[in-house]
Amino acid sequence: MAARSIATATISFGLVSVPVNIFSSSESKASVSFNMLHKKCGTRLKQQYICPKDNEIVTRADTVKGYEFAKDQYVVLEPEELKALEEKATSTIDIIEFVPLASVDREYLDKVYYLGPDKNGDRAYRLLAEALKETGKAGLGQYAARGQQHLVLLRPNNGVLVMEQLLYSDELRPTTEVTVPAGEVREGELKLAKLLIEQTSNDAFEPAKYRDTVRERVLEAIQDKVGGQEITADVVPGADTKMLDLMEALKASLAKEKPETPKKEKAEKKRKAS
After folding, report:
1. Stretch 42-49: mean pLDDT
2. Residue 157 sits in a domain of what CATH number?
3. 185 within some domain
4. Is position 267 within any domain?
């Protein structure tokens, strides 16, 4: 089934305009969620707003929106004022500059969308995608939608333009907030770690090899429960919780991951040795 466009826009760089359709890049299989029920009768509960000062239930019609400018101090904004503050949707993806794709740190990534050429835009679309591919560059720009202005990055992938919604720099926590104690990396341990990485490496990223086994297990258990069976925790017999020395753990990992030598190869080695 062909993907359905969720919006239209126009890529603008220099005096060139590229009309495009925007598509969601993912088909989310939402995590298994549970509802809060009344234990007595099994009815799903409803949420309510309660004012702690007046100790009374407040209906949605009696609520207003406010911004906390100081501790427990709010400025109330009327619906018209909130609407006036919203960024106007321009439907234009304004490319401000082109940067090396490899220079954009992956931690800035927020969401991903696919872009497809809209009517009469396929020629300019193909040109931009090929130019980005051959230069190794990506288009960095801004796009206003749903009352917000987003920082976006355009890059090519298999002839398709991908729009990555990025975080602004003030939205990203610096790595300096994570404390790493000072210390040295031992040469022997580093050598074994690199060997382990090489031993368990693949030449390509193959996401199809992986499945959300936790979600599958939960859904299967729920179906069993619907069928009248009880859900019990899995017990792993003889689970080893011993904390190994780092060097010992690396050696054990290498031994575990070492591929077996085929019988034919073993026989050939034995013949040459004799």
Report:
1. 91
2. 2.40.290.10
3. no
4. no
In the chain, the N- to C-terminal Cα span, in Å, equals: 62
CA–CA separation, 116 and 92 (whole Å)? 14
How many angstroms separate the CA atoms of 45 and 241, rounded?
Answer: 41
- Cα 95 to the center of its chain, rounded Å: 24
Alpha-carbon Rg for the chain, nearest whole angstrom, is 28
Residue 95 lies in a domain: yes
135: pLDDT confidence band, cut at 50, 70 and 90?
very high
Tokens of 153: 């990055």
Kindly give the pairing relationship between strand 148-157 and strand 160-166: antiparallel
Q: Is the pLDDT of residue 257 over 70?
A: no
pLDDT of residue 28: 67
In a 13 Å sphere around the CA of 5, the CA atoms on its Cβ side amount to 11
Q: Which residue type is seen at 135?
A: T
Q: How far is CA 40 from CA 169, 212, 230, in A?
A: 50, 34, 20
Angle at 240 between CA 233 and CA 235, to 5 degrees: 15
Q: pLDDT tens digits, residue range 204-222?
A: 778 788 787 777 888 888 8
Question: What is the share, in percent, of the chain residues with pLDDT greater than 90?
Answer: 45
Cβ-based burial of 101 (10 A; exposed 0-12, middle 13-18, buried ≥19)? middle
Does residue 99 form part of some domain?
yes
Q: Could you tell me whether strands 137-145 and 148-157 are parallel, antiparallel, or unpaired per DSSP bridges?
A: antiparallel
Which H or E run includes 167? none
Task: Identify the domain containing residue 159 by its residue range.
Answer: 20-26+89-171
| Number of domains observed in the structure of the chain | 1
pLDDT at residue number 19:
93
34 in Cβ contact with 25 (< 8 Å): no
Type of residue numbered 257 = E
- Per the listing, tokens 């939608």 go with 145
